[in-house]
Amino acid sequence: MADEDIHNGLQDEPWEERTLHLLYNSKIDQDFSIAKVQKSGRKKHKVRWMSKRAMAIPQVIIELHDQALRESTLRCLSTFLLEKREEDPENYYRTGFLLYNSCSTIAVLLQEVLAFSQLMVDRSLTVRATKRLVNVLTLFQCIAANKETRYKFVKSYVPNFLVPLILFDSPSEIYENVRAVALSVFGILCQAREPEIIQWALESNMVEVCQISIEIGSELSKVIGMHIFEAIMQDESGMSYICSPTCDQLLKRLINTWEHLVTCLALDQDFSPRLLFHIIRSGFSLVMDNLPDSIIDNSFGDLSVEFPLIGSLLHQLRLTVGKIDDCCPDFLPNDLLLY
């Protein structure tokens, strides 16, 4: 298959369905996205994934060990998982269990990650290699989603090999898809908010990784990074970590990143209302002093009317810091309150 054809195929991929939609609390992000699409007049298509062959999962996993068959096998298995994730979750989770527990399969997948990392270092990435890695990451998503393999997965430290994929700074739009899918693996791991997983995330410097992804990543990567950050902050150990004196510089970098984004969002309010939502809800709630002027004044007045949820969060934040004196903010569900 020519690289140009693969490039076109990558552009047509529904990246949000392959990343953000796998996170438990992404419904609000999907609603923001739908509203944005409707406002632009474009249509949002629901993609149906179609497997091109019958899948006998154990046999297909064995084929991963054959280097001559590996690329096509990764593609078929990835497509199968994308289809079964919603249609047949039992088979989806079962596949994650088989992938992790089958002999040497994790080592094979890790070889793929390391081979791609070498291409990154050599600055010789191709679209084909990018697509191949995305298929590998889709398998890691499946392993991360299975509660029987999730903790073993992080204890093996295999996910840590994905961190360089997130931190790699590339001007290529195609590479941003790799960053988003790699981030989603961590998002899936952290979303259950299991204390052992959160502790691993802290030890693996995932807050720092999130800060960098929010700073340099695409809009989708920024939103997924905020989801991971929120999951970590909702755990007591995560909040203690970010508020500890040793993380003072990290917290300052986070605040600077959020302030810069809010300034940009005030200038282009159609860019990402959902990103603003996450920054208000979990970012500025950590630090109530020295809020940006655009948060205090009425810079987001029109956006607050269009998205009342954002208006309610802004009202609650201003009320908390004493910038408004009257009344009660609009009702917000408990899971949408400022942290």
From TrEMBL:
Coiled coil: none annotated. InterPro entries: ARM-like, ARM-type_fold, CNOT9. It comes from the Eukaryota. GO terms for cellular component: CCR4-NOT complex. Pfam families: Rcd1. One of its GO terms (biological process) is mRNA catabolic process. SUPFAM superfamilies: ARM repeat. PANTHER family: CCR4-NOT TRANSCRIPTION COMPLEX SUBUNIT 9 (PTHR12262). Belongs to the CNOT9 family. This is Uncharacterized protein. It comes from Camellia sinensis.
